[in-house]
Amino acid sequence: MDQSDLHAPKWQFSERARKLTSSAIREILKVTERPEVISFAGGLPAPVTFPAERMREASDRILRDTPGAALQYSATEGYLPLREWVATRYSVNGAQIRPSQVLITTGSQQALDLLGKVLICPESPVLVETPTYLGALQSFSMYEPRYVQVPTDDNGLIPAALTPELTAGARVLYAQPNFQNPTGRRLPIERRRALAAFAQGAPFPVIEDDPYGALDYAGEPLPTMLSMAPDHIVHLGSFSKVLAPGLRVGYIIAPEELHFKLVQAKQATDLHTPSFTQRIVHEVVKDGFLDTHVPTIRTLYRDQCTAMLAALERYMPEGVSWNKPEGGMFIWVTLPAHIDSMKLLDEAVAQNVAFVPGAPFFASDAQHHTLRLSFVTVPPAKIDEGIARLGALLRARV
Amino acid sequence: MDQSDLHAPKWQFSERARKLTSSAIREILKVTERPEVISFAGGLPAPVTFPAERMREASDRILRDTPGAALQYSATEGYLPLREWVATRYSVNGAQIRPSQVLITTGSQQALDLLGKVLICPESPVLVETPTYLGALQSFSMYEPRYVQVPTDDNGLIPAALTPELTAGARVLYAQPNFQNPTGRRLPIERRRALAAFAQGAPFPVIEDDPYGALDYAGEPLPTMLSMAPDHIVHLGSFSKVLAPGLRVGYIIAPEELHFKLVQAKQATDLHTPSFTQRIVHEVVKDGFLDTHVPTIRTLYRDQCTAMLAALERYMPEGVSWNKPEGGMFIWVTLPAHIDSMKLLDEAVAQNVAFVPGAPFFASDAQHHTLRLSFVTVPPAKIDEGIARLGALLRARV
Fold first, then answer.
1. Entry's SUPFAM superfamilies (chains A, B) (predicted)?
2. What pLDDT, in 10s, does the model give residues B319-343?
3. What structural domains and CATH numbers belong to chain B?
4. What is the pLDDT of residues B244-289, one digit of tens each?
5. What is the least distance, in Å, from the CA of B42 to any CA of chain A?
6. Is the CB of residue B278 less than 8 Å away from at least one CB of chain A?
7. Sheet containing B356-357, strands listed edge to edge, beginning at the edge strand earlier in sequence
């Protein structure tokens, strides 16, 4: 026993903290920080899409004109003009969203934490897609739920599978209808209608987590479930993928009763999202900037997606399959059943290429022969090179 | 039953959410937003102390020189140069603080939430001062502890009261040694030594929450307990009172084992504190700015504290007593035992003056004849006028 052992305190952690493990993505990202690694692992937006100059002008204006308010404590609900902007933006297709339904959060991740805090008791059944967003599993798991996986196919969640048996006692259903992380799948319009109708009869909220909705390559977004059932859908949005993630500004649109509980929980959690970053976001978006900016992101990601799909076609051996996303940041790859993508990752990193294994995205019964590729951070020439390396590894294994 | 009732969803909230009530301070602050109200309620730093011009220059430099990094996702632990700055600043009086012990948080309130998440199980005993910081009670209560109040006197927490009976099974002890919120009390050096020694033998961490430490009017800060027992004290710091609260940047200094759990919990909670605000804080403080800036805040608050003490002397009737703070932002007032400060507040607001009743600061057995006055947001002439109104109300009641 050395000196440090003698002094290290032996403190008891909470039950939830004892169950905590670090995210697989996080550990992988550490390895792939080496510049020689071509990483398809990170879900990091391309920095070239950040409107830095506009933000610089906005910051400058805000700190010159309203420094007292921008640097002071502010309301837990968020900056009212930004809440109004969000409400207006979502008041489409006949839906009327009120600013009193909008809570500004410190990124979408905080929205997930607050929803877990307010809705989940230990052993509460929580319905999730198969697979689902890893970050949601991490947030919800702090509140010790029992996950129930909802069956999916190539079009995403299957509403007909939401039987009374499957959903009995559920506290919440969590779904990403647009270009889901990790599969890149988009829920078709008929399924949105069916899920919205289900939400109207369900004794628990359906969460529509929508960070990627604006990134549809054809510029033809499908209507949100929020617009179909505004009193029964809890909608999560974010400025991370359309402006910049480093500001950590997202929002929850929820019926007032839930909104009020979320506000109380947020007050206990971080008082409010930084006044300054909320004002920067509002200053940048208030005059319609996203209408011209988002199409440039779409075009960039669509071209990189096309490059990755072409490279997969070129280099992948028979027995490997993948989807063709209509938007977003990810492609979901299915390997022959005998290949464990977690083991493949070790070899891949040795060849300076990285991805995220699929297993951590499953709440249970993980499909180990799946993996997620992100095409947004890597330029097309590097995409081809990285997929070629991955293809060579797989050809040696099938 | 009207239309909206028919459509309002009936969702089940978690046990912790059902217990949630809005903070008394929060409700009062809403009332006191009217400009004619002289409010001693808010703990809002005086905006004149915000170094807005420096922040504007810093923001400008950051978004010109490193926009990609400042606007991108970043490490959960926080911006490394800022963590290094914090570690260096606390490596005094023989203590060596490592950057690996420092986690940057979205304000100190998030530090409290993360500590609750990682340390508290339902019914865990949690030791708090009598009275204690309301925001800590709000954060910890989300994890459903059983509070145990530690006796205090005019010098704060009494270390000799920490008997094995009182502390049995405790998961954490929470204390604010410097100019405590709400009492303004400072823990003397002998008690700090005793509490640090207690921490070294305790099977749970002692939290030293220190948002006001830099604001001692004589410029003669007492050593932190962290410096006395760096492996056994968890120290919380904040830039809210020395720079600006609207950026929401604070930090936790903790032994690595706890630090690692806190990082995992923070990842699930909001991924990381905004990259941009962390870099602004670092850019502003890195060259010693606080050494010249903080004394100007101290002088301002000391003068306003002096004005309030003089006004109390002038206008308060016999039977009302208060302490004389050596720093910080608050004065704690004790009324004759038959006066309930919550009821007094209604009358006071009608006379356009506000304060915070003392009761919400007690975990149990509230002393209803106490109240908290903040002197930092109101200029001296208004302080005199506001205390005069309050004195008139009390003279009619004693």
1. PLP-dependent transferases
2. 999 999 999 999 999 999 999 999 9
3. 3-50+291-395 (3.90.1150.10), 72-288 (3.40.640.10)
4. 999 999 999 999 999 999 999 999 999 999 999 999 999 999 999 9
5. 10
6. no
7. B321-322, B330-334, B370-374, B356-357
